[in-house]
Amino acid sequence: MILILIQYPMRTLLRFSYLLFIFCVSCGNFETKKADSAEKQENALEKKLETKSESKVILFFGNSLTAGMGLDPNEAFPALIQEKVDSLQLSYNVVNAGLSGETTASGKNRLGWVLNGDIDVFVLELGANDGLRGIPLEETRSNLQEILDLVQQKNPNTTIILAGMQIPPNMGQDYTSEFKNIFPDLAKKNKIRLIPFLLEDVAGNPELNQPDGIHPTAEGQKIIANNIWPIIANAIEQ
Q: Can 215 be counted among the known catalytic residues?
C-alpha cells in the first residue's frame, strides 16, 4: 500500500510510481496469502471479541497500515494506542482488525463477523488500495458508505472515526483530488469524526518507511499513533 503526500519533487514521484508498479504486479501472488491470513485473523478476532470483560472496545478496521505489515504486531499503531489507553488506566480494549491488501469491497464483505461483538469505537481505515488500482471513485465512496451504514445499523451508539487517505497522482490529478475528497465528504455527511490524513508527517519520508518505501517503520507507526491519539481520546471522553 502507498499513501503519499501529493506535493513532492518529480524524482520522488517517479520513484514512488515505480514502487507502485512493483506493488501492483505482485498483487496476484498476494491474494492467496491474504485469504489464509483473513481466515486466521477471523478466528483470532472472534475469540478476542467474544471475551467477556468490563472493558469497552476500540476496533481498527483497515488494511496493511493498520495490520502493521512488516513489523511485529506490537509495533503497529493500534497496539501503541492500547499502550496510551493503559497508561491512563482507561477500560478500553483495542482490537487490530487490519488485513493487508484489503479494499473497500473486500472489507465490506468481511465486516459481518467483525461486528459480532460489541464495539464502542470503530475506526475505519480503508480506500487506499482502491485508489492505487484505479477503482471507480463512486464505487469506493459507495462501499465506504455501506460500511458506515452497517456499523451504525448494528449498534447506533458506536462512535465511528474515518481515516482520510491520499494517493500519488498516477491516475491523474482529477482522480487524485476527488479521491482525497471522498473522506471529508463522508465524514461531514455522516456526522462522524475524521482523521484528515493517517500518514501525516510519515508518507514520503524514507527514514520513516521500510525499504519498500511503502509501509511505515516502527518509528513511523509511533508518529501515526501520536497523530491520531487526540481524535481517539476525544471520542473516548465523549
A: yes
